[in-house]
Write a structure and sequence with these properties.
heterotrimer, A mainly alpha, B alpha/beta, C mainly alpha, A: mainly alpha, 13 helices, globular, B: alpha/beta, four-stranded antiparallel sheet
């Protein structure tokens, strides 16, 4: 649609179906490489052949097999799920608010989740990371519901600007309360500061499978709902009035997209802790490849989100040996230069 | 020092034996134009520029704006290369051309919103790149396409912002500013709307507000980028009548990018047809709007007949599914 | 229909009708000025009331009056210590910090045309936090040096954002996006520091990063007052240019504003204010972010609302200070914790109801 409006002289990027499929194939290839690296590399490098062997014919006593199956496979899986959820949620949020700055954190998910986790630690005495899941999920979801509710109240409904402002306000309030608890409760501080840097490792030690199993329904429903909403997002991108004129129930479209984003981002935060940047930067990486069609943006997010997060995890394992840097930190430290480069090169204003 | 309200009294326009000096230059640039557009019937520019001056007993001499060897580019993308153009003083000039041919870019270059990569724009013989920004803004005003009003701003507030170039740190708001704002509101017929919020207005009203803002600036040369887009036909005519009045009553030079060839032919004294970043033809509408030039510049087959209202040229596009009827006079 | 231009139907009365229009325009401007004046007066009144409450709380009214008398040559000195040494400097520093953040936020949001673009969201305050946390945790510093580090950190980040956003000019959206990117990276850096150090250091860094006024000495008040005093004329000077910058780069350029220098000036002033306040109180959370939207919803029209933002900033900080000192007995809560907790619900309430008010106004 929009491409046809370009003057014929402008060198429009090739966004034919073939080009998009080709790019998607390349992205999938990158993801495969990243997964292989994630299984093979770390404090103890395992040859790829052994990795394959451990997956097909595991030998119980083998050290390498142990490392791959019990440490690297779970965290890679966590990375895949969390990365995909955050990438898709970020694209949804940017579509809903028509603001290139939107990401799950901006609309209050991270702050709400963090506050509830801290309250769980300090008031209820929950200390096992597995116990945080539901608090994180509930906190994130509640924060987003409040954000959406407040924005939808006044005249004009949930406009992009009001959503973003309300999200920041909730973040402000929750962060304040959270800091108050942290300053008065030593246990909370010592536990929380490690949860607060999102990581793929040691989340629900020994219980990763349980965590994922518990949240899988939410991820699945959120994902399906997200793709069901893409048609509306494409129309919302042209402005509320035009969308309404084309027969979209704008309030419902925005509400359902929001629900999908909450399910995805809430689950991701529950699994891995607050991870910034993936939701923000992945859509920006994608748009130059796909154009503004949300069906493609979401499809790419499913592939590039995990690739980015798992790659960050691998890098974190490699650069800080013998210790490691949490994926949440690496993503932000490496993602920032990437994002700056994108912003400098492209005209990102087209949202 | 510059406490006098009306820039028209600043004597710059009438000073120095300027006008006689540039008549010949006009002719010269007209002939170079003709050379570049491969057209033998050179549009006689001196005639054109003399014409409106004769019709409008100009209260002021107006300003002379010309581009010489002007090249403009966005980043690395060259849009306009080595363009010569003379805009007749105190006349209405319409710039027409196909989408993407560089009309808006040219307008931005004329207003110094784009720094030329080559050549320059001369205002009364002085390069505009050497003029102080505010002084230039008192002479040349520009209304870009699709301007965005700040959220919640009222009509009066927006129009007042047009006074920026007349005020400075040492010259606070005074009665002359109030007078200019009042005049701009009156001329555009939006006095009743003065207290309303701009974002609550209709498209036609909003466009009049923006023009009022440009009028409050009191420029002698007003550049407008598609001032009638998105307006219904009544409002289009209203805006153009307003600009015509501005030109005839105050001798303002109006330069506008227009899409509607027939409105351009009706309202412009002087027409500039652009094609692929270059001036394709210039001159009086009846000289320039020929079937041949339209075909060259727009790739459009069209008939040109006399406008039953103004007597000027009327462009009737043909399209794919109609052919020229054998009877020229009765197309029915 | 009704709005068709009645272009001076009878030319004879043209002068008269011009006068009438001028009266209408003048009346509108007067009405707006009255409303602005009323809002500013109410805000100032609230600030004064809050100041009185802060100083005299706990049966110290007599001491305050006595201290005031001391200043004019009388008095018996009963207010010297409690009021003159403890409460007044703290009150003044809080007010200066609030005003600085309020103005900085208003300038950022107006010049960048994005309500999310305040120094705390764009990583400028974060730069201060990171530098201070680094000074505390990694270098083991304390005292005013930490403030200096914060000032340098905030300025360095702002400069970096501007330079990175420069591409033959700094478009607003590019500045904002790069700022957000840098903010994320800085937060990661802070997260790294916090997870790799001893708990005690973490606590003091946390207190510093959340922002607190503490018990400042008069010298500190004087220095910040001098900084703000030096910057205020610049704020007044850039305000007019801000009005045309709000119209977009093309129109602003067409109106004779030199867009890029103007934007740079506005940003520099805003960063200096934010960094200055951060040096003395830490990056008090969300004062810069929350003040201007509140102020703008109280005022009609589309002004940058600089004075009102400053007053709202003062109110937020002083109110949070007061609440932090007295609401939880036996526990002094840092101001930055309350600012978010107080400012956020108020902004939410404005968002939910504000538009209706604007209409009736």
């Amino acid at each position: 649609m929009t491409q046809t409006l370009r003057p014929a002289t402008a060198p429009a990027p090739a966004r034919t179906l073939r080009a998009r499929v080709l790019w998607l194939g390349i992205a999938a290839g990158v993801l495969a490489l990243v997964i292989a690296a994630s299984l093979a590399l770390g404090a103890r490098d395992v040859p790829l052949a052994v990795v394959l062997e451990s997956l097909t014919t595991p030998v119980p006593g083998d050290n390498d097999h142990q490392v791959v199956l019990q440490q690297r496979l779970p965290r890679t899986l966590v990375g895949l799920l969390v990365g995909a959820a955050l990438g898709v949620a970020g694209a949804l949020m940017q579509g809903i608010t028509r603001n290139p700055l939107a990401d799950p954190g901006l609309l209050g998910v991270n702050a709400g989740a963090s506050l509830f986790v801290v309250l769980a630690i300090s008031i209820l005495g929950v200390t096992a990371p597995a116990g945080y899941i539901w608090f994180a999920f509930a906190g994130g979801a509640l924060a987003t519901v409040v954000v959406y509710g407040v924005a939808a109240l006044g005249r004009g409904g949930a406009t992009p600007v009001k959503l973003a402002l309300a999200g920041m306000a909730i973040t402000a309030g929750a962060t304040s309360l959270l800091t108050l608890v942290l300053l008065t409760n030593t246990t909370a501080l010592s536990t929380y500061r490690f949860w607060a840097v999102g990581s793929l490792a040691g989340r629900g030690a020994g219980g990763t499978a349980d965590t994922i199993a518990a949240l899988a329904p939410f991820l699945l429903v959120g994902g399906l709902l997200a793709f069901a909403c893409t048609r509306w997002l494409n129309l919302l991108a042209m402005g509320d009035e035009l969308a309404r004129g084309l027969g979209v129930n704008v309030a419902r479209a925005r509400g359902l997209s929001m629900l999908a984003a909450v399910l995805l981002a809430g689950s991701a935060t529950a699994i891995a802790g607050p991870i910034a940047f993936v939701g923000l930067v992945v859509p920006h990486l994608i748009r130059p490849l796909t154009g503004p069609d949300y069906r493609w943006i979401l499809s790419f997010a499913l592939v590039l989100g995990p690739a980015l997060l798992v790659a960050a995890d691998v890098i974190g394992r490699l650069i800080a040996q013998p210790g490691e840097l949490e994926a949440g930190l690496v993503v932000a430290l490496l993602g920032a230069p990437v994002m700056i480069a994108i912003v400098r090169r492209a005209k990102v204003s087209g949202l | 020092m510059t406490s006098d309200v009306h820039p028209r009294t600043d004597g710059r326009g009438t000073s120095a034996a300027d006008p006689p000096a540039d008549r010949p230059r006009t002719r010269a640039s007209g002939s170079t134009n003709a050379g570049t557009v491969r057209r033998s019937d050179t549009p006689s520019q001196p005639d054109v520029s003399a014409d409106p001056a004769a019709r409008a007993p100009a209260q002021r001499a107006g300003h002379d704006l010309r581009a010489e060897g002007l090249s403009l580019a966005y980043e690395a993308r060259q849009v306009i290369a080595d363009l010569d153009l003379h805009l007749p003083r105190a006349a209405i000039t319409a710039i027409v051309g196909a989408n993407g041919c560089g009309k808006s870019t040219l307008l931005r270059g004329l207003a110094r919103l784009l720094r030329p990569t080559g050549g320059g724009v001369l205002l009364d013989g002085r390069s505009i790149s050497t003029l102080p920004a505010r002084e230039l803004a008192r002479t040349i005003g520009i209304l870009p396409q699709g301007p965005q009003a700040p959220e919640g701003i009222t009509v009066a507030e927006l129009v007042r912002r047009g006074r920026y170039p007349h005020r400075s740190w040492f010259q606070p708001w005074d009665r002359s500013d109030d007078a200019a704002v009042a005049e701009a509101l009156t001329a555009t017929g939006i006095v009743d709307l003065a207290g309303r919020r701009v974002d609550e207005l209709s498209g036609g009203q909003r466009q009049r507000v923006w023009i009022a803002m440009a009028l409050a600036q009191e420029p002698d040369v007003l550049l407008l980028d598609e001032p009638t887009t998105f307006l219904d036909v009544t409002h289009q005519l209203e805006i153009l009548d307003l600009l015509l009045e501005l030109n005839r009553e105050r001798g303002a030079t109006v330069v506008m990018v227009l899409h509607d060839l027939n409105l351009a032919a009706r309202y412009a004294d002087h027409l500039v047809v652009m094609r692929a970043g270059a001036v394709h033809a210039t001159g009086r509408p009846d000289q320039v709007l020929t079937e041949e030039i339209i075909a060259e510049a727009f790739g459009l087959r069209a008939r040109v007949v006399p406008d039953p209202v103004s007597g000027g040229p009327l462009v009737v596009p043909i399209g794919r599914f109609h052919t020229t009827p054998p009877d020229h006079d009765l197309p029915h | 229909m009704t709005s068709t231009p009645a272009l001076a139907p009878s030319h004879g009365t043209r002068a008269e009708s011009a006068n009438a229009v001028r009266r209408i325009v003048g009346e509108l401007a007067r009405r707006r000025r009255r409303r602005t004046f009323a809002v500013l007066s109410v805000l100032s009144g609230l600030v004064l009331a809050l100041a009185w409450l802060t100083l005299s709380w706990g049966g110290n009214a007599a001491a305050v009056l006595d201290y005031a008398a001391t200043l004019t040559g009388g008095g018996e000195g009963i207010g010297d210590f409690r009021i003159g040494t403890l409460r007044l400097p703290r009150l003044l520093l809080g007010a200066l910090v609030g005003a600085s953040f309020g103005i900085a936020g208003a300038l950022f949001q107006s010049v960048l045309g994005n309500p999310l673009a305040s120094p705390d969201v764009l990583g400028v305050n974060g730069g201060g936090s990171f530098a201070a946390a680094f000074a505390i945790i990694a270098l083991g510093l304390t005292g005013p040096v930490v403030g200096l580090a914060a000032f340098l950190g905030a300025s360095a980040v702002a400069t970096a954002i501007y330079l990175l956003a420069w591409r033959g000019g700094v478009a607003g959206y590019r500045f904002v996006l790069i700022g957000v990117g840098i903010a994320f990276a800085i937060n990661a850096g802070i997260g790294y520091l916090l997870t790799r150090s001893a708990e005690n250091d973490v606590r003091s860094a946390l207190v510093w990063m959340v922002g607190s006024i503490g018990t400042p000495r008069w010298e500190q008040v004087a220095i910040l007052a001098a900084i703000v005093g030096a910057l205020l004329p610049l704020v007044v000077a850039v305000r007019r240019r801000l009005l045309v910058l709000q119209l977009g780069d093309d129109l602003a350029g067409g109106l004779g504003a030199r867009v890029e220098p103007a934007r740079l000036t506005v940003l520099t002033v805003a960063v200096a204010l934010a960094a200055g306040a951060t040096a003395f109180a830490g990056p008090v959370a969300f004062v810069a972010f929350v003040s201007a939207p509140i102020a703008r919803r109280l005022l009609p029209g589309a002004t940058p609302a600089i004075s009102a933002s400053a007053l709202v900033g003062v109110l937020v900080v002083l109110g949070a200070e007061f609440a932090g000192q007295h609401f939880l007995p036996g526990l002094e809560v840092p101001v930055g914790i309350i600012t978010g907790a107080v400012g956020a619900p108020y902004l939410l309430w404005l968002l939910a109801t504000g538009d209706a008010q604007e209409r009736s106004a």
